[in-house]
Design goal:
Shape: globular
CATH topology of one domain: TIM Barrel
CATH architecture of one domain: Alpha-Beta Barrel
Distance between the termini: 67 Å
CATH class of one domain: Alpha Beta
Structural class: alpha/beta
CATH superfamily of one domain: Metal-dependent hydrolases
Number of strands: 18
Strand content: 15-25%
Mean pLDDT: 96
């Protein structure tokens, strides 16, 4: 059925500008954008007077499983977060994973995000049933997603340089007794998921390969991931040089940078997406650019976890595609890309004092969350703009939003002022999935209530895991402090190195 969005101001063009126009949607695509459009007989009309039509924003990196653990993180580094992963992600049922994914997807819709790249995690291991529940959640809520099973065949604690030597005997025995899932089984799981779910929900669900952190992947596993990418033509997404600790460990154990190791295993290419990319050296950026690879920038979680400030300006200057992400709610606290837009712009100013030409201005970061994220998701021709032929993934924002008063420069207002509170209506694939600020596809209240019960039950069940994490955390912190004292020829912190 056709739909005419009538009487709005539409943000379109390159560079995007606001103009009075109607939008004609036929099936799942935009058929035309212009003033006074005539819809076909029987077309539904949506009165959008007093509304601004935007392209749906794209979340370049998140974790569905993390939303149920929102609010659990304290003053944690990335390595603290990983130490607590069994406590935050364990002791769940598939229904719990459904609820976790659903509350994140609802939040994305309510803040103007229509698509996401999601690395789904589970402890102690991903199961077909839990992955299916996550697929079902995204399908039910109506968010478009590239969903990747994030797996590892090396235990995290074995990748923290110097940790084992710091542990007392009982903790050392505990850590040395930990075993990752078998490499062959992880590859078989990933292949099974690709075969079953890639292209589901009329193409709104796509599947990718995700060796979650390269240091937690054996050479055999990386080679297996590369084979799956070649055999099935899917993308690959990993956490790339997120912390200095990871970079130091890669040099110590493999004698090369993380990017160089991935290139050696033929994982770099146009379908490669590296999340974070905080501690990329110039040579790493050059290799990514040459391969046509992309980076998902997550400024909120990079700051929240003390990882540093990513070299986004250098990546863009080299021609690397960069999309904008929130990361998961346990470490970035929310799924609001409007918040990520503002952080991405303002944090860039710290790296280039009084070099305003190198700052990420409003137009640049808006492009990260629209065209950039569309390219990251491998859907550049379909997403990221309000234009004829594109998918009808659209967001209507109230022009009377308090954060848009007065409206001078639209991009400045959207990036620096709007919070997402003005989002009123959202379409995905031409279907209205949010109307009047309420999701139309699922019972929000029921999902929130069930999610609260699940989170409380999971927290009670994870007491032993939290106790172990509490014992390990001081030793992990000490090992990490020693590692980051190692000098590198570049720095991504906003403070001088301590001597």
């Amino acid at each position: 059925m056709a739909l005419v969005i009538r009487g709005a101001r539409v943000l379109a063009g390159s560079p995007p500008v606001l103009r009075r126009a109607d939008v004609l949607v036929e099936a799942d695509r935009i058929a035309a954008v212009g003033p006074g459009l005539a819809g076909p007989a029987g077309a539904r009309e949506l009165d959008a007077s007093g509304r601004i039509v935007l392209p749906g924003l794209g979340n370049a990196h998140t974790h569905a499983a993390s939303h149920l653990a929102r609010g659990r993180a304290g003053n944690w580094t990335l390595e603290d977060l990983l130490t607590h992963a069994p406590a935050n992600y364990g002791h769940r049922t598939p229904e719990d994973d459904y609820l976790s994914a659903a509350i994140g997807a609802i939040e994305m819709l309510k803040t103007g995000c229509t698509s996401a790249y999601d690395l789904y995690m589970a402890v102690p291991a991903i199961t077909d049933e839990a992955f299916e529940a996550t697929v079902r959640a995204y399908t039910d809520v109506g968010v478009r997603v590239v969903l990747a099973p994030a797996v590892a065949d090396v235990v995290f604690f074995q990748t923290v340089p110097g940790l084992i030597d710091l542990l007392p005997p009982d903790l050392r025995r505990t850590v040395e007794g930990m075993r990752a899932a078998p490499t062959k089984g992880l590859l078989e799981l990933t292949e099974r998921i690709i075969r079953r779910w890639n292209g589901a929900a009329q193409g709104r669900i796509r599947v990718a390969v995700a060796p979650t952190i390269p240091n937690q992947a054996t050479d055999e596993f990386l080679d297996g991931c590369a084979r799956l990418v070649r055999d099935y033509g899917v993308g690959v997404h990993t956490h790339l040089a997120e912390s200095k600790v990871q970079v130091i460990e890669s040099q110590r154990r493999f004698g090369k940078s993380i990017v160089a190791r991935l290139a050696e295993h033929r994982l770099l290419g146009p379908g490669f997406v590296g999340a974070h990319g905080v501690w990329l050296a110039d040579d790493d950026i050059r290799m990514l650019a040459a391969a046509g690879a992309a980076v998902a920038h997550n400024p909120g979680s990079n700051l929240r976890l003390g990882c540093g400030i990513a070299p986004v300006r250098e990546l863009l200057d080299r021609g690397v595609t960069v999309g904008l992400g929130t990361d998961g709610s346990v470490c970035a606290d929310n799924q609001n890309l409007f918040e990520a837009l503002r952080i991405a712009s303002v944090v860039s100013t710290i790296r280039f004092p009084h070099e305003t030409g190198r700052w990420l201005d409003a137009g640049t970061v808006w492009n990260l969350a629209t065209a950039g994220s569309a390219r990251v998701l491998g859907q550049a021709a379909d997403l990221g703009a309000v234009a004829a032929g594109r998918k009808a993934d659209l967001v209507l924002v109230r022009a009377d939003s308090v954060f848009l008063q007065p409206l001078a420069d639209p991009l400045n207002a959207l990036v620096y002022s709007e919070t997402g509170a003005g989002v009123e209506t959202v379409l995905v694939d031409g279907r209205v999935v949010l109307e009047g600020g309420r999701v139309t596809t699922v019972d929000e209240a029921s999902i929130y209530a069930r999610a609260q019960e699940a989170a409380e039950r999971q927290h009670r069940a994870s007491a032993e895991s939290r106790a172990l994490a509490g014992r390990l955390a001081p030793f992990v912190a000490a090992a990490c402090r020693a590692a980051v004292a190692t000098p590198l020829p570049f720095d991504r912190y906003a403070a001088p190195a301590r001597t």
